[in-house]
Amino acid sequence: MDMVNRAVKMLDVLARLTRIEHALVLMVAVLAGETIVLGRIPAPTEAIVISLLVPAFIEIGSFALNDILDVKSDRANAKKDRPLVNNELSIGAAWAITIVAYAAGLGLAYLMGVLPFSIALIFAALSVAYNYWLKDLPLAGNAAIGASMAIPFVFGNLVINGEASQPVLIIAAIALMAGTAREIIKSVEDISGDVEMRGSSTLPVVIGINGSLLVGKILVLAAIALSFLPFPYLNMNPLALALVAAADLMLVYVIVEMKEDALEMPMKLALIAFAVATIGYLLAVIL
Fold first, then answer.
1. What count of other Cβ atoms lies within 10 Å of the Cβ of residue 156?
2. Terminal Cα distance for the chain, rounded
3. What is the mean pLDDT of residues 95-100?
4. Contact yes or no for 17/97 (Cβ under 8 A)
5. pTM, two decimal places
6. What count of Cα atoms within 13 Å lies in the side-chain half-sphere of residue 243?
7. What is the 3-state secondary structure (H, E, C) of the chain?
8. pLDDT digits (tens, 9 = 90+) for 168-182
């Protein structure tokens, strides 16, 4: 029983280090891109399974690297759920996870051919650049995270067809805006530790907290405004429409609740809205 408890605890530690929920959302985004291009859910061939794993592994590597480099600022920001902050996991173990995950993601992408590998390499390079440099710059780091949420849709598209699909590009643009907005919220939440420990010049440092939250709200509104544009290319299925509408309502709530002293909930809700909308677009193809 003790062995089972230890195993469960370690899985929980790894899930918190790598933010595994993000990996699952990115896998669904790849599947959505593939499904939209094919007009149906792809058969679970080896190539399709690999395509789902590529962004998941890169995401795992990216978040592990983020926690390694941010351990001091995370302590300053009192992020006690982070395994490296509360010493549930060693820095050495986190480095091992980072290296193995990046290698697995890029190695699997290499098996898929030049184009998928090139996209995966850009995805991985962007995540490394973010962790080492971009996250301390105004808006650039926020946009890098937004791009990392958009790329999986395009990756899934190009795995199936080398020509970009119009609805996929629209959905990727929505993901870019929503993801950038979510990261701006995070930069506001982390401002004190980021400035104290890294001397960051993030957006809230440059234009202030209220200005940053305003930019975030504008981007969320833009994502909402675009949310129904893919449907003329898909099926006007009532359930799919309802899911995207529900995601929009969540984002409206995010805008209303986007306040300096209560940012954790809007961040979580924005990710849920992203997942719900992605499932909605999937259902608009298969139903």
1. 30
2. 45
3. 98
4. yes
5. 0.90
6. 17
7. CHHHHHHHHHHHHHHHHHCHHHHHHHHHHHHHHHHHHHCCCCCCCHHHHHHHHHHHHHHHHHHHHHHHHCHHHHHHCCCCCCCCCCCCCCHHHHHHHHHHHHHHHHHHHHCCCHHHHHHHHHHHHHHHHHHHCHHHCCCHHHHHHHHHHHHHHHHHHHHHCCCCCHHHHHHHHHHHHHHHHHHHHHHHHCHHHHHHHHCCCCHHHHHCHHHHHHHHHHHHHHHHHHCCCCHHHCCCCHHHHHHHHHHHHHHHHHHHHCECCECHHHHHHHHHHHHHHHHHHHHHHHC
8. 999 999 999 999 999
pLDDT digits (tens, 9 = 90+) for 62-78: 999 999 998 988 888 77
Output the pLDDT for position 3. 78
- CA separation for the pair 235, 252 (Å, rounded): 25
Q: What is the dihedral of CA 103, 105, 107, 110, to 10 degrees?
A: -140
The third-level CATH classification (topology) of the domain covering 2-286 is Tetracycline Repressor; domain 2 (1.10.357)
Count of other CB atoms within 10 angstroms of residue 199: 9
What average pLDDT does the segment 220-238 reach? 94
Taking the CA atoms of residue 21, residue 164, residue 174 and residue 35 in that order, the dihedral angle to the nearest 10 degrees is: -50
What is d(CA 122, CA 189) in angstroms, rounded to the nearest whole number? 28
Q: Given this model, what pLDDT does residue 1 score? A: 63
